Amino acid sequence: MASAIEEQRLFAARQRSEELRSLINYHNYRYYVLDSPEIADAAYDELMRELRRLEEEFPRLIVPDSPTQRVGGEPVAAFGIVEHQLPLLSLANVFDDQELQAWYRRAENLLGQEVDDLVCELKMDGLAVALVYEDGRLVQGATRGDGRRGEDVTANLRTIRSVPLTLAEGAPRRLEVRGEVYIRKADFERLNEQRAEQGLPLYANPRNLAAGSLRQLDPRVTAQRPLDIFIYGLGWWEGGALPDNHWDALAALKALGCKVSPYNARVAGLAAVEDYHRLWLGRRPDLEFEADGVVVKVNSYRLQEQLGAVGHAPRWAVAYKFPAIQATTKLRDIQVNVGRTGTLNPFAVLEPVQVGGATVKLATLHNEDDIRRKDIRVGDTVIVQRAGEVIPQVVGPVLSLRTGEEQVFAMPGTCPVCGTPVVRPAGEAMHRCPNPSCPAQLYRLLEHFASRGAMDIRGLGEQWAGVLLAQGLVGDVGDVYYLEQERLQGLARMGEKSAKNLLAAIERSKQRPLANLLFALGILHVGGQTAALLAEHFRSLDRLAGASAEEIGEIPGVGPVVAESVRAYFAEPRNRQVLAKLRRAGVKMRLAEEQTSMAGPLAGQEFVFTGTLAAYPRSQAEALVRRLGGSAGSAVTKRTTYLVAGEAPGSKLKRAQQLAVRVLDEAEFQELVATAEKAE
Ligand code: IVH
Q1: pLDDT at 30 (0 to 100)
Q2: Tell me, what's the pLDDT at 74?
Q3: Of 184, 393, 650, 655, which sits with the fewest C-beta atoms within 10 Å of its C-beta?
Q4: What atom in ligand 1 is closest to the CA of residue 126?
């Protein structure tokens, strides 16, 4: 009898394991080959766990081609294939303190001794690569591939600035280092925004963007992507000596010129690992790259060797994962709001779901093409993702859960706010409401006009823009400067004091720098950086307004599309009227000769530049600093706050060191600017 029940259980288990294998293989393919996952990592992990559990209980179900028996997917054939001299292993996952403790006990039991010396690292969410150096020179770089064989992406890896092409003196004659290529969250968002504007398919997450960038057949494309790397270990080495433990080896690699993560920590005992995990789980939103967990490694190479590996995962290391930042939920509806330049922005209305500790009800959908490409339909079960602290995104539908009831989305033919027929200019990805007096556009424009970084009119955008429009007190941004105390006081919930405060804030805004004004006008394609370039070059609004598209396009960093958009803005009679109102009201329209004491997050800080910056010409970097309220000096003095040192810095660097002026490299400068822009 018992054996009949056993038989039955085995039969059920066999069926389920086959099902799981084909599911996992499919998702492996989506993830590794197509770089386009369909389900959340957490859901995938759960499938793998279920299969592993079944195979543990019924070992005879294990077949050589089970996904548990291999590390990743098939390499694509277009690159050369590299046989790894030593396989690149993957990591077993644990999800809570208990599982971590079980891993640790097992290691101690196997070794028959206490293991106190551990290294904790962040598990970067990028892609693994192996770099081979011979006589100190980079000779080969490959992706992990399936662990044994990867793709030869040497030419692409060479384009990553943080990958050393030559190592410092003292390297073993041959060695292989391993690391993670990744892309920063902010860069990911910026690139995806550009792609959305151009109507190109979007990347689902920074990891896919890093993978897609590294696996470009044209290294020049890779070179344009802001890829970075952290070296997290040694593969093998010959003809030389290296330390006998991971921590010291990392220090040695760092000394040889490799980029090693600054977040690594050598800790004693498991409690410290748990603390490290908690700490970085809390700080995860502040990290500039995505990390999906903590890697814990036994430090001693001798003990590592003794522990060995099971299947494709070493016993001496484990990944303690962070909770998923993806989740699945139902897409209830797709709605559209109207942006400041009239763009129709579709967004998802979701059944509320917890993602990485926050409830998500709405998510962006970028544009109609993107919805089509991802084949997202109303009624779908969709994967929702919060990348960092930004607006949640819909990654895509779970096709296997389709019922057939789902509705394909179509952009409305008329503006949902004013009813004007929408247009989609040739070559653009966004639909637009062409009516410049559309109340939705006016509202967003007013909000933008008053925002920090623009005219910075406290209280206007967030509180009163809607009321002022609804009451007919303003019909365009020029009217803001003609508001009267009496009319304002008559508004519901606006007392004498708040009316006075609002008017005072409006008055102060007349003195904002020209770049802020240009940004505030909401000219299509003119963001903060372009506004700074235009202001710097033309130095007065009148001169800019009189310029041809060719003249505008001559500024380095301003393309023809932007130039034409600026020209068209100033050609429009309605806009000229607005500008006339601003002028009459006394709004400053020229570049101030003295750039001191401007409002802005960098106010009071003086920047001096030396050497070549990779990302922008120096004039542009200086304009950027000024737009954010800082000043740009030409020589290092006691008053200099920062010296920004690019490639091949000059004598200013020495001077800065003598005067103990803080020196920033380009990455630090960019970070500071990004933070300042956020604070705006
Ligand atoms: S160690 C045997 N350290 O995680 C050790 N891996 O599933 C294997 N990863 O393919 C790698 N950060 O792409 C290690 N600090 C880190 C890591 C890390 C990210 C990735 C790596 C690897 C995967 C393991």
Answers
A1: 62
A2: 36
A3: 650
A4: 13
Which CATH superfamily includes the segment(s) 597-679?
BRCT domain (3.40.50.10190)
What pairing do the DSSP bridges indicate for beta strands 393-397 and 407-408? Answer: unpaired
Q: Whose CA is nearest to atom 2 of ligand 1?
A: 89
Q: Residue 128: CB within 6 Å of ligand 1?
A: yes
Token duo for residue 402:
């389709």
The residues that bridge with 652 in the sheet, in sequence order, are: none
Residues 365/394, Cβ–Cβ less than 8 Å: yes
Q: Looking at residue 222, what is its pLDDT? A: 83
How many whole angstroms separate alpha carbon 519 and alpha carbon 533?
11
Which CA distances in Å does 507 have to 465, 510, 515?
A: 16, 6, 18
Judge: domain 2-69, CATH 3.40.630.30: no
Q: pTM of the prediction?
A: 0.53
Query: So where are the chain's domains?
Result: 2-69, 81-321, 326-402, 439-594, 597-679
Tell me the three state secondary structure of residue 34.
coil
Q: Which residues share a beta bridge with 296?
A: 120, 318
Q: Which residues of 324-338 are buried (b: 16+ CB within 10 A; e: fewer)?
A: bbbbbbebeebebeb
318 lines ligand 1 (CB under 6 A): no
Beta bridge partners of 644: 609, 664
What is the CA(297)–ligand 1 centre distance, in A?
Answer: 10
123 assigned to active site: yes
609 neighbors 663 (Cβ within 8 angstroms): no
Residue 473 identity (one-letter amino acid)? L
Tokens of 337: 């709001």
- What is the assigned CATH class of domain 439-594? mainly alpha
492: nearest Cα among 470, 462, 474, 461: 470
Region of 57 (left: φ > 0; alpha: ψ -120 to 50; beta: rest) is alpha
What's the gap in Å between 127 CA and the centre of ligand 1?
Answer: 9
Neighbouring CB atoms inside 10 A of 477's CB total 22
Architecture of the 81-321 domain: 2-Layer Sandwich (3.30)
Q: In testing the pocket of ligand 1, which one of 41, 86, 91, 143 has its CB within 8 Å of the most ligand atoms?
A: 91
CB atoms under 10 Å from CB of 593, counted, come to 6
Task: To the nearest 10°, report the CA torsion of 99, 101, 104, 108.
Answer: -130
Question: 2, exposed or middle or buried, with CB in 10 Å at 0-12, 13-18, 19+?
Answer: exposed
What gap in Å lies between CA 56 and CA 13, rounded to an integer? 11
Residues of the chain falling short of pLDDT 50: 33-34, 70-76, 389, 594-597
Q: Strands 606-610 and 642-645: what pairing? A: parallel
**Those residues with Cβ within 8 angstroms of residue 387's Cβ, 6 or more apart along the chain or in another chain:** 185, 188, 189, 205, 206, 290, 325, 393
Nearest CA to ligand 1 atom 21: 128
What integer pLDDT is reported at residue 36 of this predicted model? 65
